[in-house]
Design goal:
This protein is α/β, with parallel strands linked by helices. The chain has helices at 46-53, 76-84, 101-112, 117-130, 146-157, 176-193, 204-210, 230-236, 240-246; strands spanning 6-17, 20-31, 35-39, 61-66, 69-70, 86-89, 164-168, 196-200, 213-218, 223-227. It has a six-stranded mixed sheet, with helices on both faces. Strands 2-1-4-5 form a four-stranded antiparallel sheet, with helices on one face. Strand 1 (6-17) and strand 2 form a beta hairpin. It is globular, with a radius of gyration of 18 Å. Bound molecules: adenosine-5'-triphosphate and magnesium ion. Magnesium ion binds next to helix 1. Magnesium ion binds at residues 46-47, 91, 168.
């Protein structure tokens, strides 16, 4: 087994909007090559945690560090360098509707690389090929399906070959077949880009299919109550809330989900 190489460390993080604390006492490590799942029920703070990890929101307390450099205490230059290593697909996908798919993916390339128009166009086609959208350059987001829009969003998130890719609810709103194709695509991208993936989701099928590491946020206790390999949590975590979530029981029965896991 390879020795884990930490890439991202969250330490004693408290997250708040104004003086309303959403979660506190978050401490965990994401290792290089992980597909790290942030899980928990609706409204527990998953997207908020992602916003802290990508530098959009400052901790109320605690730190988020990349390879030992704290995102919020770094110099302006170091911080920009760290942000440049990240790719993000936000919840909802959010492509610019007035731009073609190619124009959407070109935006980060034009902003952050010295590539000329022809090189950018080649790069866009390469990224579209990686997500299975060859030939859709000139389509507008409204002209393609929801699943294709998610994949186009992923193509934009990987435009700059991120070391670490953050994805918020990639399969929500997709039917089980497309949700499972999205899981396969995320694993392929992790392998082909050699990157690390942090994925926010409450879809059980995705959690077990792709996650090798995780953190579980509890909305009631406002803190993390488990972390580690989701399969091991299912087998070995005694916390009733974690078991209820992973088996879709109790208050989690009505959480939307893909295919339920079979006998485990
Ligand atoms: N901009 C904001 N200002 C104030 N409160 C907010 C803001 N964004 C989110 N919240 C609150 O913070 C809590 C966590 O929200 P967040 O969106 O992080 O949850 P989530 O786990 O991603 O939920 P979902 O599963 O529905 O996507 C919720 O109670 C939400 O109402
Ligand atoms: Mg969310």
């Amino acid at each position: 087994m390879n020795i884990p190489q930490p890439i991202l460390q969250v330490s004693e993080l408290t997250m708040a909007y104004g003086d309303i604390v959403i979660q506190s006492g978050l401490t965990f490590t994401v290792n290089r090559g992980d597909i790290f799942v942030v899980m928990g029920g609706s409204g527990c703070g998953k997207s908020t945690l992602l916003r802290h990890m990508v530098g959009l929101k400052a901790p109320f307390k605690g730190t988020v560090s990349y390879e030992g450099v704290s995102l919020w205490e770094a110099s302006e230059t170091d911080r920009a360098g760290l942000l440049r290593k990240m790719g993000v697909l936000y919840q909802g996908g959010a492509l610019w509707s007035s731009m073609t798919i190619a124009e959407n993916i070109s935006v980060p390339l034009e902003a952050y690389t010295p590539l000329n128009r022809r090189e950018i166009s080649e790069m866009v086609s390469l990224k579209l090929a990686l997500v299975g959208l060859t030939g859709f350059e000139e389509y507008y987001p409204s002209e393609i399906s929801g699943g294709m829009r998610k994949r186009a969003g992923l193509a934009r998130a990987i435009a700059l070959d991120p070391e670490i890719l953050f994805i918020d609810e990639p399969s929500s709103g997709l039917d089980p077949v497309n949700a499972s194709l999205m899981d396969d695509l995320i694993m392929e991208l992790r392998d082909s880009l050699g990157s690390t993936v942090v994925m926010v989701t409450h879809e059980l099928a995705s959690i077990f299919a792709v996650g090798n590491n995780s953190v579980f946020l509890d909305a009631d206790r406002k803190t993390m109550i488990a972390h580690g390999d989701p399969d091991e949590l299912l087998r070995g975590c005694s916390d009733p809330a974690v078991q209820a979530f992973l088996r879709r029981q109790g208050k989690y029965v009505h959480e939307k989900s893909g295919i339920e896991p079979l006998e485990r």
